[in-house]
Structures are given as structure tokens and as C-alpha cells.
Amino acid sequence: MAEGRLRRKAEMALSSSMPSPRRLPPPWTLEENNNACFIVRDATGQALGYVYFEEEPGRRAAANLLTCDEARRIARIVQDGQT
């Protein structure tokens, strides 16, 4: 009997200290921001990912950034990965 009570207390302590899984509600949207990156957001507006790009070849090479088209394709892959 005492063992059952201890087990329930342990389960309650564990469940209260464990964070609930974070929900990322669909639909996820894609927006371009300041001609510098694409942002993938969930339905609540929470930013889930940023994919940066640079259109000027010299700056892109120096900073090792993606082109706008490459960044858009990657951001769409992230957007399509919603569950």
C-alpha cells in the first residue's frame, strides 16, 4: 500500500517537472524579410526557422550565403516538413 502511494507521488513529481511537448500548429507560412532571409512561421506566428541569402555575388561569396532561389527552396522544404 505504501509502495503504491510512493509510486504515485514519484509519477506526479516526474510529470510536473517534465515540460509538455511544444506544439507547432499548422499551417506553417513562409515570408521574405528585408530582402535578406525567409522566415518559416507556425500558425501562432512563432518563427521556426530563418534561411538567409544575399543577391550580390561578391558579398554572397564573402559571407558564404545562399542565393535567394536556393534559400527559398530550403525554406519551402522546412515549411513542407510540418506534421
Can you walk through the features of this model?
With 83 residues, this protein is of the alpha+beta class. A 3-stranded antiparallel sheet has the order 1-2-3, covered by helices on one side. The chain has helices at 2-17, 57-63, 68-80, and strands spanning 29-33, 37-41, 47-52. The protein has one domain. It has 3 helices and 3 strands, in the order αβββαα. Helix content is 43%, strand content 19%.
Q: What spatial form do the alpha-carbon principal axes imply? A: elongated
Radius of gyration: 21 Å
How many strands in all?
A: 3
* String of helices and strands: HEEEHH
Q: Major β-sheet, in short?
A: 3 strands, antiparallel
Task: Give the number of domains.
Answer: 1
How are the strands ordered across the major sheet?
A: 1-2-3
State the helix count: 3
Uncertain spans, ≥5 residues at pLDDT below 50? none
Q: What structural category characterises the helix and strand content? A: alpha+beta
**What number is the mean pLDDT?**
85
Estimate percent helicity: 40-55%
What portion of the residues fall into strands of 2 or more residues?
15-25%
Tell me the distance between the termini.
43 Å
